[in-house]
Specification:
- 16% of the residues lie in helices and 38% in strands.
- It is built from 1 helix and 6 strands.
- The strands form 2 sheets. Strands 1, 2, 5 and 6 form a 4-stranded antiparallel sheet that branches.
- Strand 1 and strand 2 form a beta hairpin.
């Protein structure tokens, strides 16, 4: 994709700048899980071009924080 979010993610990886990451698993009430990482330093992505769509892989990215606040998990 050629949009601002993609460029921002790649730029953060090149500069080793921390970004926040949130993802959600599930769609139905009572079957949701959300994970939030407030400070993740992404590695420069590896490109997997063996399929029809180009995929990025961030293998060695690391979460960081202070006072054990690297990750928050919620269920709903």
């Amino acid at each position: 994709m050629d949009n601002d979010a993609t460029h921002g993610l790649y730029q953060a990886a090149r500069q080793e700048s921390p970004i926040s990451v949130m993802f959600q698993l599930g769609e139905a009430e009572g079957q949701l899980m959300g994970v939030y990482l407030k400070s993740v330093v992404p590695e420069i992505p590896e490109f997997e071009d063996g399929e029809n769509r180009l995929k990025w892989t961030f293998r060695a990215s690391r979460a960081q924080g202070t006072a054990e606040d690297e990750i928050a998990i919620a269920f709903g």
